[in-house]
Amino acid sequence: MSISMHAASIPVFKQMLGSLSAVLARAQAHAVAKNIAPEALLQARLFPDMFALLRQVQIAADFAKSVAARLAQAEVPVYEDNEQSFADLQARIAKTLEFIDSLPAARFEGSEQREIVLRPGTPKEMKLSGQVYLLNYGLPQFFFHVTTAYALLRHNGVEIGKKDYMGTF
Q1: I need a labelling partner for 162 at 20 to 30 A (CA). Which of 86, 110, 113, 168 fits?
Q2: Is 76 left (phi over 0), alpha (psi -120 to 50) or beta?
Q3: Is residue 1 over pLDDT 70?
Q4: Contact 79, 58 (CB under 8 A)
């Protein structure tokens, strides 16, 4: 039995972006309830050399949209990375979900063998098959940033758990 590239990517991105949206809503409510400035959570880091929560969410959305676009041979949408609030992050997630929902499953057919070129023409250029790109690069990167966002919120007292991280599937 085989699984389509669409089935291995889009439902996963949707599930985890949905859960990320939900934990961000919980974080915003937590900030209000505890009289914490939202910026304290949005700029939280686990260590000084790591990206803050805001950037973790931006990057998670970037991986969802760019992996999906490349597999479907669509143009990767460009986002400005100008989010400054929980509402802005929610809008970015919603925009990402809308984009990946717009990609028909048929566009993913054959993408497991399709060559994906990252950073073309640079010393860091990588050429991967679609399957390797999704399973060994795209999904791990996406999960890293979603998990880090979750960990930042949990570390800062937002009452969330594994069920919140997993979301609805």
Answers
A1: 86
A2: beta
A3: no
A4: yes
Beta carbons of 28 and 21 less than 8 angstroms apart = no
Residue 154, burial from CB neighbour count under 10 angstroms (0-12, 13-18, 19+): middle
The neighbouring-strand residues paired with 73 are none
Provide the 8-state DSSP code for 77: P
CA angle 161, 163, 167 (to 5 degrees): 125
Q: What is the pLDDT of residues 81-113, one digit of tens each?
A: 999 999 999 999 999 999 999 999 999 999 999
First to last CA, the chain: 21
Q: Position of tokens 């979603």?
A: 146
Rounded CA gap, 97 and 17, in Å?
8
pLDDT in tens, 114-134: 999 999 889 999 999 999 999
Q: How is the chain split into domains, by residue range?
A: 5-166
Which parts of the chain fold into alpha helices (H)? 5-33, 38-42, 53-71, 86-101, 130-132, 139-155, 162-166
Token pair belonging to 128 = 């991967």
